[in-house]
Automatic annotation (TrEMBL):
Residues 107-118 have a biased composition (Low complexity). InterPro entries: PepSY. The keyword Signal applies. Residues 97-133 are annotated as: Disordered. It comes from the Bacteria. Keywords: Signal. Residues 1-27 form the signal peptide. It comes from Maritimibacter fusiformis. The keyword Signal applies. This is PepSY domain-containing protein. Pfam families: PepSY_2. Residues 12-92 form the PepSY domain.
Length: 133
């Protein structure tokens, strides 16, 4: 049995629309499409981080955007996506948001705020003693 021409046309149109919508879904919203000649220099990214009080760890290029990893004034680790032409902030992600989503709502404990365990290893600031039987 041969398929009717209308079935073939309908299937082809459906397949084309499915492929087109899949391509749109794969496109990332924070892709930057700026020619390299129009990019702000790396020094401008560093200056922007300084102005915002971000302690810069790394500058990368991801999907055509500047992406920086830093620590903000409050001590939170952040990942900031910047438009390379204007240095406008496209997105800020807080790295500890993943911890909160997993149930660690308090975040990391600051150093020196928890007493050592009372197991005899940390008394009087002496090094631990190893005993073997």
């Amino acid at each position: 049995m041969k398929p009717k021409l209308t079935h073939v046309v309908a299937f082809t149109a459906f397949a084309g629309l499915a492929a087109l919508s899949a391509g749109v879904a794969l496109a990332d919203d924070d892709d930057c499409r700026v020619p390299m000649a129009d990019w702000q220099p790396r020094e401008a990214v560093i200056a922007l981080a300084d102005e915002n009080g971000w302690m810069l760890h790394e500058i990368e290029i991801d999907d055509g955007c500047y992406e920086i990893e830093a620590r903000n004034r409050e001590g939170r680790d952040i990942e900031v996506t910047l438009d390379p032409r204007t240095l406008a902030v496209i997105e800020i992600e807080y790295d500890d948001d993943d911890d909160k989503a997993r149930g660690n709502r308090r975040g990391p404990t600051p150093a020196g705020t928890i007493a050592p365990p009372a197991n005899g290893l940390f008394e009087n600031a002496t090094p631990p003693q190893v005993k073997s039987n």
